[in-house]
TrEMBL record:
Binding site for substrate: 57, 73-75
Protein name stated in the entry: Aspartate 1-decarboxylase
Compartment annotation: Cytoplasm
Details of cofactor binding: Binds 1 pyruvoyl group covalently per subunit.
Family designation: Belongs to the PanD family.
GO biological process per UniProt: alanine biosynthetic process; pantothenate biosynthetic process
InterPro entries for the chain: Asp_de-COase-like_dom_sf, Asp_decarbox
PTM statement from Swiss-Prot or TrEMBL: Is synthesized initially as an inactive proenzyme, which is activated by self-cleavage at a specific serine bond to produce a beta-subunit with a hydroxyl group at its C-terminus and an alpha-subunit with a pyruvoyl group at its N-terminus.
Residues of the active site: 25, 58
Subunit structure: Heterooctamer of four alpha and four beta subunits.
Any one cellular-component term (Gene Ontology): cytosol
Parts of the chain that traverse the membrane: none
Protein function: Catalyzes the pyruvoyl-dependent decarboxylation of aspartate to produce beta-alanine.
Length: 116
């Protein structure tokens, strides 16, 4: 049997942009994606600490070392620039593997979203 477990988490990052006219997705500084083991196109759950919204979209890499975190398309209506988010990805794995699996959890600087 397989279960779904947390694969990675970017904890408390600040929204830097909201682009309603973009096709869709969330743009994430590629340094953050690498540190959290998130790949281009991967499904990401977004939890907004400011308004309680939860949504899912897919990740696209943004410019490195910029702290960019932009919600695009319809998701842009669920955030405001400056909101604090938690980004989570999940993976399916066998129960025995899940018991020892260690997710990638990162805690960027909350002011600029950069890794410290």
């Amino acid at each position: 049997m397989k279960i779904e477990v947390v694969k990675s988490k970017i904890h408390r990052v600040k929204v830097t942009g909201a682009d309603l006219n973009y096709i869709g997705s969330i743009t994430i500084d590629e340094d953050l994606m690498d540190a959290a083991n998130i790949i281009k196109g991967e499904k990401v759950q977004i939890v907004n600490n400011n308004n309680g919204e939860r949504l899912e979209t897919y990740a696209i890499p943004g410019p490195r070392n910029t702290g960019e975190l932009t919600l695009n398309g319809a998701a842009a209506r669920k955030v405001a620039v400056g909101d604090i988010l938690i980004l989570i990805t999940y993976a399916w794995m066998e129960i025995e593997e899940a018991k020892t699996f260690e997710p990638a959890m990162i805690f960027p600087n909350e002011e600029n979203n950069l890794l410290t």
